[in-house]
Specification:
By secondary structure, this protein is of the alpha/beta class. It is 30% helix and 26% strand. Helix 1 packs across helix 3, helix 10 crosses helix 11 and helix 11 packs parallel to helix 12.
Length: 523
């Protein structure tokens, strides 16, 4: 079996072994070489330990995209500490919850959050507060000072069981920390194999030799927030092979994205569904930038319309588009690939032998039947501080542990499956189940619609009333949209009401904000 390694061991070796002049991080005019990343991450790592953090303690990353996030991430692994992602949209009490729940020993934060953290810090266990940018708060240490201090990291006893936390977005309650062994994540990345045709390295030294030989080294354009699992995992995988992570400042701007992609000649890009893909396609169609250098564009976390994929492939005919189905609780649930040869085809996911579609009896369902997606093999330990929810989400089936994040799908005869959506958002209308994602994707096939969210609202007659908010770039009548859905889906799935809004609410990572969408039309 291929070897499992911790990212601490990987990054420590790669940082010391890669040519120092190679680019590691590119962001809004700032370019950090691998030599810079090696020195700065070591100084940060040693500083965390000098402040009293010990192996297994948590490091909260409260930052927007930029070099500091990746440097802190690498430092966290090199010091055998545990990454905690913090949503930068959280308010005071939400921040208090996640920093307290994770028992964060170190908090690294952007200057914009200094005031709110200053009011919370006396209620939290952190040993060290590190501020990125701005005038350093009295309770904090300046990030650049710590990163450039030249502190030396003592040798560490890295283990594949060293952990990483990915906190969920809290769509079904308070955010939960999903505990991943680093060795399991390394395995899900192919154990470091330079390509599908090559064997994984048998040792860290062999992996560093591969990195020096530029095997598997690429330049990745990471468009989602790094505090989101999709962006985080891609950044980790890119850096673990000595590659380059390219990020953008501020809120997502499609024109900037395709221009940077062209200027930096990026090898692959990561997005989150239509919320990123449609604006990118509009910019490209307008003659802005280019994605011609991309070999792969990958999306995870939400649905991605086939017609948008086809449009992108016209701008990069040699590119492969990959829908990677996964969640914080389970990566590698399935994948769907499209190229110029099958552009616009319906999205059908394929999985390896570790993914099942199961019914309520926890047994695999027959072809043509709906069930829940269950993932075995390399899965998380469970939820931090929540054994009850751990037992519910990570049960044993026939003596093997599985992750059941809550996604529903229909299995086909050939083993492929069609994703229906997350059960937590399922609408029960007149006794019928409606998965919002299916209706959303149908609405988005109308030529006037850019984005859509569908949800249920309380209704005396139906129990829940299927409701939609849509974002249109051209005038359109709501009744026309309802008729459009009825042409493609069963009548009970047709929204009873369609509300045209200026902007469909989504989080910075592109995921649907159903609570805000409901608030737009409630009452």
């Amino acid at each position: 079996m291929p070897q499992e390694f911790s990212f601490g061991a990987i990054f420590d070796a790669v940082a010391r072994g890669v040519e120092p002049e190679r680019p590691a991080l590119i962001h809004d005019g700032v370019r950090r070489s691998w030599g810079d990343l090696a020195q700065r991450s070591e100084s940060l790592a040693a500083g965390f330990l000098a402040a009293g953090a010990v192996a297994g303690d948590r490091v909260a990353h409260l930052m927007r995209n930029g070099p500091a996030y990746c440097e802190t991430l690498v430092a966290t692994f090199r010091s055998r500490l545990v990454h905690v992602n913090v949503n930068y949209r959280y308010t005071g009490e939400e921040l208090l919850y996640i920093l307290d729940n994770s028992d964060a020993a170190v908090v690294v934060f952007d200057a914009e959050f200094a005031d709110v953290l200053g009011g919370l810090r006396d209620r939290l266990p952190a040993k060290l507060w590190v501020q990125v940018g701005g005038e350093t708060a009295p309770f904090a240490t300046d990030y650049d000072t710590l990163a450039s201090a030249g502190h030396v990291l003592p040798p560490q006893d890295y283990q594949p069981t060293d952990m990483l936390f990915i906190y969920t977005g809290g769509t079904t309650g308070l955010p939960k920390g999903v505990m991943w062994d680093q060795g399991a994540l390394w395995g899900l990345m192919g154990y470091g194999a330079p390509s599908a045709a090559e064997a994984p390295p048998e040792s860290i030294a062999e992996h560093v030799d591969n990195v020096r030989a530029s095997k598997g080294r690429q330049k990745a354009l990471v468009l989602p927030p790094l505090m989101h699992g999709t962006g985080l995992i891609i950044a980790m995988g890119t850096l673990s092979k000595g590659g380059t992570v390219v990020t953008l400042p501020g809120n997502f701007d499609p024109a900037t994205a395709v221009s940077v992609c062209r200027d930096e000649a990026c090898d692959y890009a990561v997005i989150v569904g239509d919320a990123f893909a449609r604006p990118l396609l509009k910019a490209l169609d307008a003659g802005i930038g280019s994605i011609a250098t991309l070999g792969v564009m990958i999306s995870s976390g939400t649905m991605w319309s086939p017609e948008v994929k086809a449009g992108l492939l016209k701008h990069a005919p040699a590119m492969m588009i990959v829908d990677s189905l996964g969640s914080s609780e389970g990566l590698g649930l399935g994948a769907a690939a499209q190229t110029a040869d099958n552009a616009g085809a319906p999205t059908k996911f394929m999985a390896d032998g570790n993914t099942l579609i199961i019914g309520d009896d926890m047994k695999p369902v027959p072809a043509g039947t709906m069930g829940r997606i269950a993932r075995g093999g390399l899965i998380p330990r469970g939820y931090w501080k929540d054994p009850v929810k751990t037992a519910a989400t990570f049960p044993e089936i026939d003596g093997k542990r599985y992750s059941i994040p809550g996604d529903f799908a229909i299995i086909e005869e050939d083993g492929s499956f069609t994703l229906l959506g997350r059960g937590s958002q399922c609408i029960n209308t007149g006794g019928e189940k409606v998965f919002p994602e299916e209706v959303e994707e149908t609405l988005k096939t109308h030529p006037a619609i850019d984005d859509a969210l569908v949800f249920g609202l309380p209704d005396e007659k139906w129990g829940q009333c299927v409701t939609a908010v849509v974002e249109a770039h051209a005038p359109v009548d709501p009744e026309e949209l309802r008729a459009h859905v009825r042409q493609h889906l069963a009548g009970y799935k047709t929204p009873k009401t369609v509300h045209i809004v200026k902007k469909v609410p989504r989080a910075p990572n592109g995921k649907a904000d159903y609570a805000s969408a409901k608030a737009m039309v409630a009452g």
